[in-house]
Amino acid sequence: MNKKQKKLLIRVLAAGAMLLVLMLLPLSEYPVLRFFLFLIPYFTVGYDILRKAWKGILHRQVFDENFLMAVATIGAMILGEYAEGVAVMWFYQIGELFQSYAVGKSRQNISALMDIRPDYANLEEDGEVTRVDPDEVEIGSLIVVGPGEKIPIDGIVEEGASTLNTAALTGESLPRDVAPGDEVLSGCVNTSGLLRIRTTREFDESTASKILDLVENASSRKSESEQFITKFARYYTPAVCYAAFAVAILPPLVQILFGSWFNGGIVFGEALTFADVLGIFSTWIYRALTFLVISCPCAIVVSIPLSFFGGIGGASAQGILIKGSNYMETLANVRTVAFDKTGTITKGNFEVAAVHHASIDNNELLEMAALAESHSTHPISRSLALAYGKPLDRSRVLDVREISGKGVVAQILGKGFAAEAPSLPGLPMEQTVHTVTVGNMRLMEAEGIEAIACHSTGTIVHMAVDGKYVGHIVISDELKPEADEAMKALRAAGVDRTVMLTGDKEKVAAAVAKEVGIDEVRAELLPAEKVEAVEKLLETAGTGKVAFVGDGINDAPVLRRADIGIAMGALGSDAAIEAADVVLMDDDPRKIAKAIRIAGKCIHIVKENIYFAIFVKLACLILGALGIANMWLAIFADVGVMVICVINAMRCLAVKKL
After folding, report:
1. How do residues 103-120 score in pLDDT, each as one tens digit?
2. Closest CA relative to residue 469, chosen from 452, 484, 481, 486
3. Which residue in 226, 293, 429, 441 has the fewest CB atoms around it within 10 Å?
C-alpha cells in the first residue's frame, strides 16, 4: 500500500468509527449539536471529494461522479439524514480505496517491466570510466557494464564474457551466455563477468526505450468498450442530473396542484399548509438524491478500463506486449491464425542434417563446401562452416564465381585435402588446385555433372570436385520444439483454422506443416503474395478475426494487413515493434494461444461487469423513483456494485496459469 492509500485508509477507519459512535449516542434531543457532530466524520472522509466537485464546477466540468456524490450527500445532510449522508461518502471512499488497490496491483506487473529502464551508463573514454545519463551516450561509444548492472543501451560485446538475465524482456528467467562479438540488448541484467560494449544505437532507439514507450502508450489506444463508456458517461451523467432535478420538482408540483392519489392524505381543493408543502418536497428531494446516488456510473466507468489495464499488465509480466485495449478485443475474437515459417515455426537456424552419397570423407567434403561458400553471409554458408567445426583457411580460396540462383564455382588450393580420395589426382598437396562446384541440381545440370537426386526434406546442396560428383549435403531449418504443442493450444483457445504462408518450397513447407499440425499451406510466396493470401483469409473468415504471426522483419506488410499482427521472436527488431499490434518478447509460439486466452478472459470480465452494473442500477433506479428504495439501497447500487465490479476486474491480473 502506498502513502496515499494509507492516508485514505486511516480517514475511512476514523470516519467509520465516529459514525458508529454518533449513531449509538442519544442525540435526537440536540439537533444542532447532532448536525455539527456528524459534520466531523463527513468532512474527515469526504473533504477531497467536495474539493474535486468544486474545482469541476469552477472549470465548467460539472457532471462527474464527484459532483453526484457531493450533491447527494449535502442534500441528505440538509434534509436531516445525517447518518445516511456520511455513510454514502464513507462507502464511496471505500470503493475508491478498492479501485486504487486494484490499479496498484496492475501497476506492479507493469512496474517489473518498467524496471528495465536504466538509470545510468558507465561511459569509458581514454581509459577513464564516467557515470553518465544514458541519453548522453552516442552511437559507437564504449560502455562498461559490471555484474548486477543493467545494460543501458543496445550494442556489441567487445571484451569480456558473462551470463545475462533476460527475464525483464522475455518474462522467462532464461540465462543467456554472451562473448565478444555477440549482440546485447538494453534491459538485460549482467549477472557475472565485466563487459565492455560498443553501442550500436542511441538510448531513445534502444530496445528498452521502445518497449517502455509501447507499454506506456497502450492506455491511449482504447477499445470499443472503453470508447463507448467514455461517450456514455459524457451524456449519461448530465441526463441523470436533470432527471433527478425533475424527480425533485415535477412530482411534488403535480401533487400540490392536483392532489395526491399516489401518496394519500391530501384531497384536491384542500388548503395546504407550509408544513404540508415542505413535507411533500422533502419526500421527493430525498427520492431524487437517492436516484442520484444510484445513477452514479462509477462501477462501469472504473471497472472497464481497470479490466483492460489489468489484462495488459498481466500479459506484460508474461512477456506479451499488447499495444492497446483495442487489440485485446480483436485478439479475443481471433479464429484464424496465419504463420510465417522461418523464425516462427522453425528456429531460423539452418544446420547440416546429413551428408549423402559421399565419395570422399565427410569432413573433407564439408571443408571444401565451407571454403567455397566462405565469402557469403547466407545462413546456409554459416551452417556449413558450423558443421565443419574447425577454423577455415580462406587464403586457400583463389577464385569464386557466383552463379545467381544456382550456387558457386570456386578454385581452392588442395593443401590438406584428401590425398586418400581415390577420385582425385594424387598430386602434391601444395601444387593442387581443385575446381569445387557447390549448389543446387540446376547448377549440376548447367556444369554437365550427373548428380544424384535427394528425397530428404530440406535444402539440398550438391557438390562436385574437378567435375566429378562427390555427394550432397542436406541442410534443414530446425523446428521449434514447442511448435506442435502451440498448435494444440491454439485449437483449445478457440482457433478454427491455421495456415502457413511461406516463401519456402512447397515440399519443405508441407513437411513442416504436417509435422506440427498446421491445417493449410501456401508456399513459394513473395511478400506481396503473402498480403494477397491474407486478404483472401479475411474474406473467408466470417465474423472471426485473422491474426498473422511473423518474425517482424520481412513480414511488416502482412502484419499491417491482418486484423491483428503478432511479432514472434522479435526481441530488438524495429520492424516488429513498429508493424505488429502484439509483440512476443521471446520466440515461444505457445504464447500466441496464451495471448488469446488472456484477451478472452479480459473481455469476458468486462461484459460481466457491464451487464451486472446496468441490471442492478436500472432495478434500483426504478425502485428509487417509486420511493421503495432508500439511501442505504442506493449506497449498495453505487458503491457496492463498484466494489464488486472492481474485485471482479482484478481477476484480469491472474493470467500466469492461463
Report:
1. 665 555 555 555 566 778
2. 452
3. 429
Q: What is the pLDDT of residues 10-38, one digit of tens each?
A: 998 999 999 999 988 888 888 889 999 99
DSSP states of 222-265 as a string? --HHHHHHHHHHHHHHHHHHHHHHHHHHHHHHHHHHH--SSS-S
Alpha helices in 296-410 (DSSP H): 298-317, 325-332, 362-372, 379-388
Angle between helices 590-625 and 298-317 (to 10 degrees): 170
Positions marked catalytic: 340
Burial class (CB in 10 A: 0-12, 13-18, 19+), 530: buried
- For the sheet containing 407-413, what is the strand order? 346-356, 468-479, 459-465, 433-439, 407-413, 397-403
Tell which phi-psi region holds residue 361, choosing left (phi > 0), alpha (psi between -120 and 50) or beta: beta
Structural domains in the chain plus CATH codes:
3-109+221-307+603-653 (no CATH), 121-210 (2.70.150.10), 323-342+480-585 (3.40.50.1000), 347-479 (3.40.1110.10)
Band of residue 60 on the pLDDT scale cut at 50, 70, 90: confident
How high does pLDDT run on average in the chain?
A: 81
Say what the pLDDT of residue 597 is.
94
Which residues, at least 6 apart from 421, have a Cβ–Cβ distance to it below 8 Å?
A: 359, 360, 361, 364
**Each residue's pLDDT tens digit, 603-657:** 999 889 888 888 888 888 788 767 777 777 777 777 788 778 878 888 887 887 7
| Alpha-carbon distances, residue 442 vs 446, 450, 456 (angstroms) | 6, 11, 17
**DSSP per-residue codes, 81-143:** -HHHHHHHHHHHHHHHHHHHHHHHHHHHHHHHHHTTS-S-EEEEETTEEEEE-GGGPPTT-EE
Please tell me whether residue 515 adopts helix, strand or coil conformation. helix
C-alpha cell at 180: 565478444
Assigned C-alpha cell, 313: 499488465
Residue of higher predicted confidence among 225 and 429: 225
Q: What is the mean pLDDT of residues 452-465?
A: 87
Residues belonging to the chain: 658
Which residue type, as a one-letter code, is found at position 507?
K
Question: Using alpha carbons only, what angle is made at residue 165 by residues 197 and 179, rounded to the nearest 5 degrees?
Answer: 40
Strand pairing of 468-479 and 346-356?
antiparallel
Give the integer Cα–Cα distance in Å for 393 and 381: 15
The single-letter code of the amino acid at 331 is L
pLDDT score at 558: 85
Exposed, middle or buried, 193 (CB in 10 Å: 0-12/13-18/19+)?
middle
Q: If you ran DSSP here, which 8-state letter would residue 394 be given?
A: G
Using CA atoms, how far residue 621 sits from 123, 608, 626, in Å, is: 65, 20, 9
DSSP collapsed to 3 states, 27-95: CCCCHHHHHHHHHHHHHHHHHHHHHHHHHHHHCCCCCCHHHHHHHHHHHHHHCCCHHHHHHHHHHHHHH
**Would you state the cell numbers that stand for residue 520, as one nine-digit string?**
493449410
Q: Which residues pair with 196 in a beta bridge?
A: 144, 159
